[in-house]
Amino acid sequence: MNRYIAALDRIVVLIIGIALVVAGAYIIAWDAGVRLIRTWVSRLDRPTLLGIPEQPWWHWVLTGTFVFCVVAGFGLLYLNLRLRRARAITLRHAQSGTEISVDLGPIADGVAAELAHLPGVRAAKGRATVDRGLPTLSVVVNADPGINVVDFTTRAEDIASTTRRNLDGSDVAVQVLLHLDRVDAAQ
């Protein structure tokens, strides 16, 4: 998720939160018998207010609100759940000045293949994504529940640091997620 989507999410949550706080404060004030709230409610034109649902435009307003909320909700879900693919990065050799473009997808697959050969690992899958604006090699490892986690972590950190060293001069993160199988599934 990038920072613009995170900011949009926070703005939506802030608006909904403020609306809920105001509604809750109004209900508490009404229940507590606050004179100002009771005065405001007594000034409302009740026959007009109760007649709104019978107006011909009311159904269109409800339908439009429903459609807007569904489209906005699915739009936010799409923006939050989509994986942003990492673009190719450019590496520059310091001595010769030559530049090379490197696709991160095969590198993520290579890191996954290296991790798949470690003892106790059942499967590893890698992909190159963008996480918070940073190109990331994300590798998901499924392992036996009896794996030596300390040994695996040490070896995974070595592989990640070697990968980062080989991508010298670029801001690329390496992320290894370890998923342990359930104990009853392993037997």
Automatic annotation (TrEMBL):
It comes from the Bacteria. It comes from Rhodococcus globerulus. This is Alkaline shock response membrane anchor protein AmaP. Keywords: Membrane, Transmembrane, Transmembrane helix. The chain crosses the membrane at residues 12-37, 57-79.
